[in-house]
Amino acid sequence: MFDAVLHGKVPSALLGLEDVLTSNVFGTLRREHPSDGLARFLETAYREESGKREMLSRVLGDIESASYEFWPPLSETDCIFAEPDVVVITQDAGKRKSAVLVEAKLYSGKSSGPGTGLRPRDQLAREYDNLVRWALRLHAIPAERCHLVYCTAGIGPPTEEMRQAEDEYKKKRKAELHVYWMTWRVLPRLLQGSSRPLLRELAEVVKRMGLVFYEGVTPFPEAVPGPTDLWSFRKGDIGHGWRPVPGLPQPWTFSRVV
Q1: How many angstroms separate the Cα of 159 from the Cα of each of 49, 178, 179?
Q2: Tell me, what DSSP letter sits at residue 8?
Q3: Strand 179-183 to 230-235 pairing
Q4: CB count, 10 Å around CB of 242?
Q5: What is the pTM of this model?
Q6: Which residues 6+ apart lie within 8 Å of 132 measured at CB?
Q7: Are 73 and 112 in contact (CB under 8 A)?
Q8: pLDDT of 15 above 80
């Protein structure tokens, strides 16, 4: 799949599917030691609390091992059905387990917002609602070690979407939900210098999808002007059949001097 993406053989419609991106990223991270990829990615997840940034890594500790469940169907008692993208069960140096649910988005927002009724309906809230019961039942992981990460393509957190989920969960379950946020765009910088070839390829795939931060304008190729390669400004038409708007200053275009 990586080779097809890097050689432009994957249709853009397929490349733009968030499930494909999720599979490429977390499927690759699963094949490497957590310290090489997963932990570095999760270390970028944070939430704002009273004007301060709280990092997910502070509560996760040093991840020594991890197991992954992709698109697990969660239908716990007294919860509305949910199918999150990935649930990662991590274990730190002290053998403490945590359940990290990652809801991944690319070009869309949440599938549902808060609603009426006694049970959380907001997509993030109902996923977490299922998670705390599922993790305790199957892995003996208490609610305080269950975490939800909202991963998007934005350059900043979708604070309103996150706040809606937290408010609904608190209102209906009388308990706290803390939504952490991270972006796909950190991956190229995180992984492009990795010693692991597969992770370097992943960085290139994510970069090919345009999921990077602004890196400045690409410089023009250097050229040494000669007698027939001189350029100057002239006042006149914009070109391509366009004309200046009457009443506005004439535009400027480049004109080659020959």
Answers
A1: 12, 12, 10
A2: T
A3: unpaired
A4: 9
A5: 0.81
A6: 143, 146
A7: no
A8: no
